[in-house]
């Protein structure tokens, strides 16, 4: 590309602007890693908890410990990705702030679960609806938007069913909210 | 023709750089070089011109042991870009 071009027409100028803005667009596809990682981890934890409850195991929630390596892996990958990125867009910043706030809320709900009679699952599902819907809008990716609405509906369902069946509702929510959109995002061609 | 267009932006490479920076918070030199398909020397000169006009800021640091140059657009740069696009629209609508 040349630096000086006195004969640059208005159309050529516009062409440069649109091409370059397109180059700087965020890469939504790489986020599929997080949706798939957390989709599987949370689905396995929910199903595990349901099975352990059915088997009358006294501490079924112990299965949630599998989220610890997932947190470590997510933080490591996110940090590395951030360092490697040659460009930072506003959408990246929105995404980071959104998911970080989400993580803080989740930890708060878990920490104060005893204050709300351990109705943790429905609250987490309702809170999960927010970043999922916003991510759907930010990435212009409708399956995530629908996934977010599913989280909200499953949150309501969770309040209505008994504690024993809450993990099953959670599995449905995570499958529709993270796993399906995650696989769709992974197979999506860059536009 | 094009009398009202900012001469600093009315150049292929400088316009390309500013267009990338307008849609990003920051971009590295290597990213700009790759996307604008320019040479390091030429890009350096054009970045200096934009920085002198305070349209962008250029920050030099290190990524591990490698030197790292990061560019950001300034408020003045955003305003200049908006005025450039507005002037461009007038030419196209004529």
Strand portion of chain A, in percent?
under 5%
Into which percentage range does the β-strand content of chain B fall?
A: 15-25%
Oligomeric state as shown: heterodimer
CATH architecture of chain B: Orthogonal Bundle
Which pair of chains has the greatest number of interface residues, and how are they split between the two chains? A-B, 27 and 35 residues
Count, helices of chain B: 4
| Helical amount of chain B | 40-55%
Most strands sheet of chain A: none
- Indicate the radius of gyration of chain A in whole angstroms: 21 Å
What profile does the largest beta sheet of chain B have?
A: 3 strands, antiparallel
Indicate the CATH topology of chain B: Arc Repressor Mutant, subunit A
Q: What is the rounded Rg of chain B?
A: 14 Å
Write down the overall geometry of chain A: elongated
Q: Which residues of chain B sit in consecutive blocks of at least 5 with pLDDT less than 50? A: none
Count structural domains of chain A: 1
- What is the 3D shape of chain B? elongated
What does it look like?
The complex is a heterodimer of chains A (191) and B (94). Chain A has 191 residues and is mainly α. Chain A is 72% helix and 2% strand. Chain A is elongated, with a radius of gyration of 21 Å. The model of chain A has no long low-confidence stretch (mean pLDDT 89). Chain B has 94 residues and is of the alpha+beta class. Chain B has one domain: Winged helix-like DNA-binding domain superfamily/Winged helix DNA-binding domain (Arc Repressor Mutant, subunit A, Orthogonal Bundle), CATH 1.10.10. Chain B has helices spanning 12-22, 29-36, 40-52, 75-93, and strands at residues 24-28, 56-63, 66-73. A 3-stranded antiparallel β-sheet of chain B has the order 1-3-2. The longest helix of chain B has 19 residues, at 75-93. Chain B is elongated, with a radius of gyration of 14 Å. Chains A and B meet through helix 1, strand 1 and helix 4 of A and helix 1, strand 1, helix 2, helix 3 and helix 4 of B.
């Amino acid at each position: 590309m040349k630096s000086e071009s006195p004969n640059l027409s208005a159309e050529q100028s516009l062409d440069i602007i649109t091409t370059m803005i397109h180059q700087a667009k965020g890469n939504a596809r790489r986020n599929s890693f997080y949706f798939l990682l957390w989709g599987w981890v949370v689905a396995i934890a929910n199903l595990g908890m349901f099975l352990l409850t059915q088997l009358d195991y006294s501490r079924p929630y112990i299965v949630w410990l599998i989220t610890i390596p997932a947190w470590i892996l997510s933080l490591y990958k996110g940090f590395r990705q951030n360092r490697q990125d040659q460009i930072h867009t506003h959408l990246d910043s929105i995404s980071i702030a959104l998911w970080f706030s989400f993580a803080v809320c989740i930890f708060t709900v878990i920490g104060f679960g005893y204050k709300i009679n351990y109705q943790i699952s429905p609250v987490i599902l309702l809170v999960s609806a927010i970043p999922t819907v916003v991510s759907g809008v930010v990435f212009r990716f409708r399956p995530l938007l629908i996934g977010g609405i599913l989280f909200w509906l499953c949150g309501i369902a969770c309040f209505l069913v008994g504690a024993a069946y809450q993990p099953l509702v959670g599995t449905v929510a995570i499958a529709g909210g993270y796993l399906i959109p995650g696989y769709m995002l992974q197979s999506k061609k860059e536009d | 023709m094009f009398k009202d267009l900012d001469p600093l932006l009315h150049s292929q490479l400088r316009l390309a750089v500013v267009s990338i920076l307008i849609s990003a918070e920051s971009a590295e030199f290597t990213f700009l070089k790759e996307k604008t398909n320019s040479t390091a020397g030429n890009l350096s000169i054009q970045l200096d011109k934009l920085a002198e006009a305070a349209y962008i800021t250029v920050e030099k640091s290190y990524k591990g042991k490698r030197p790292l140059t990061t560019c950001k657009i300034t408020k003045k740069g955003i305003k200049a870009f908006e005025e450039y696009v507005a002037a461009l629209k007038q030419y196209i609508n004529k």
